[in-house]
């Protein structure tokens, strides 16, 4: 797969991801927030992640400014990157669709918030974060550059480790033992296949 093709594939997948996010953001825009746990630290890490997944790739694709940091991978890695990105898009969409009006871009609880343990959430608690990790891998395989190819996953990991702990604590505070039981039979971002006869909700 040529460099131009890899960049075009990345842009198409990139647009698909942001279209999904904007659609679901509009869906929940009128929901009343009953609790917010946003912190300055979270905002800083989100900004760094935004640079890695949005700003730097666009600079790298549309300008020659970062070409000095290019690396070479075999052509076939572009096809693997495409498959990984398509998987990430599907998981990203499914995560939003299964959450419905319970989704929030930040650490927030909405009015009438409910615990979702069906769909992809039957197996993993944080499929949206899993999709971002897959996106980071795909970006490194499609955009062969030490800066804009790798900064996605490098900037996302600190945010992930901070947010997962805080998000799970917020869910424990909100749903108590129900969420603790849910944690026992699901993985964070890697599926944990256990026998569960019925949903917890």
Give an overview of the whole structure.
With 201 residues, this protein is mainly α. It has one domain: Four Helix Bundle (Hemerythrin (Met), subunit A), CATH 1.20.120. It contains six helices and two strands, in the order αβααβααα. The radius of gyration is 18 Å and the shape is elongated. The relative contact order is 0.18.
Short description:
By secondary structure, the chain is mostly helical. The chain is built from six helices and two strands; from the N terminus they run H-E-H-H-E-H-H-H. 29% of the residues are buried.
Poorly predicted tracts of residues:
none
Number of helices: 6
| Average of per-residue pLDDT values | 89
Principal-axis shape: elongated
CATH class: Mainly Alpha
Largest sheet: 2 strands, antiparallel
Strands, count: 2
Label the CATH architecture: Up-down Bundle
Computed CA radius of gyration, to the nearest angstrom: 18 Å
Quaternary structure type = single chain
* Range of strand content: under 5%
Number of domains: 1
| Straight-line distance between termini | 46 Å
* Order of H and E elements: HEHHEHHH
Which key features would you list for this structure?
6 helices, mainly alpha, elongated, Four Helix Bundle (Hemerythrin (Met), subunit A)
């Amino acid at each position: 797969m040529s460099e131009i093709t890899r960049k075009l594939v990345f842009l198409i997948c990139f647009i698909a991801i942001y279209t999904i996010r904007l659609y679901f953001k509009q869906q929940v825009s009128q929901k009343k927030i009953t609790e917010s746990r946003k912190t300055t630290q979270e905002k800083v890490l989100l900004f760094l992640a935004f640079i890695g997944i949005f700003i730097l790739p666009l600079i790298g694709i549309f300008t020659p400014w970062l070409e000095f940091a290019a690396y070479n991978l075999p052509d076939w890695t572009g096809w693997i990157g495409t498959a990984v990105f398509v998987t990430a898009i599907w998981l990203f969409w499914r995560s939003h669709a299964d959450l419905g009006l319970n989704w929030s871009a930040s650490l927030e609880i909405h009015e009438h918030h409910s615990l979702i343990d069906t769909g992809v959430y039957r197996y993993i608690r944080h499929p949206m974060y899993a999709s971002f990790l897959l996106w980071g891998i795909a970006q490194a395989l499609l955009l062969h550059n030490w800066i804009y190819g790798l900064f996605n996953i490098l900037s996302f990991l600190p945010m992930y480790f901070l947010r997962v702990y805080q998000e799970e604590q917020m869910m424990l505070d909100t749903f108590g033992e129900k969420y603790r039981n849910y944690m026992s039979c699901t993985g964070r971002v890697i599926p944990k296949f256990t026998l569960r006869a019925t949903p917890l909700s």
